[in-house]
Write a structure and sequence with these properties.
Elements lengths: L1 H20 L13 E2 L5 E13 L2 E9 L12 H16 L12 E7 L14 E9 L2 E5 L2
Length: 144
């Protein structure tokens, strides 16, 4: 029984990965520029990482480059960046989730002041992360 559940889970993950990454109106475009957020800074979409297991089910991650959050000469505070990430979740990430198939339980939005490989720890980089659950087609902030 456990093996069957594992196989079904793997199939569902593969289907969701296909739907999220197939292109068209579902998947974001890497390197997309010109996203203006509430703080006034301009952010650039870096990449989508999908289908990790979050605390409450499937989780997807949208990563952005936001040079204005830099601790050295940046103009956007952590509080303003948090509002920007909520805006990105509601106005960017939600629009790019599939309309069919499994729905992720959590969206993680991350911003870094520079382009970094996923999972890299760079002491000089400024990075912010926020997690949101999806409820009534809206992003609801969750504390990490």
């Amino acid at each position: 029984m456990k093996a069957a559940a594992t196989i079904i889970g793997a199939v569902l993950l593969a289907v969701l990965a296909y739907l999220l990454l197939r292109g068209g109106d579902v998947a974001p475009v890497e390197g997309e520029t010109g996203l203006s957020v509430p703080s006034g800074q301009e952010v650039r979409f870096l990449e989508f990482i999908g289908l990790g297991q979050g605390s409450d089910g499937l989780a997807v991650r949208f990563r952005f480059v936001a040079p204005a959050i830099s601790r050295d000469g940046g103009t956007v505070s952590a509080e303003a960046a948090q509002k920007d990430m909520e805006w990105l979740c509601n106005n960017y990430a939600l629009e790019r989730l599939p309309s069919t198939g499994p729905v992720p339980a959590q969206i993680v939005i991350s911003m870094a002041d520079r382009e970094l490989p996923f999972g890299t720890q760079e002491p000089l980089a400024t990075q912010f992360f926020e997690a949101f659950r999806i409820q009534d087609n809206a992003c609801i902030w969750e504390a990490f």
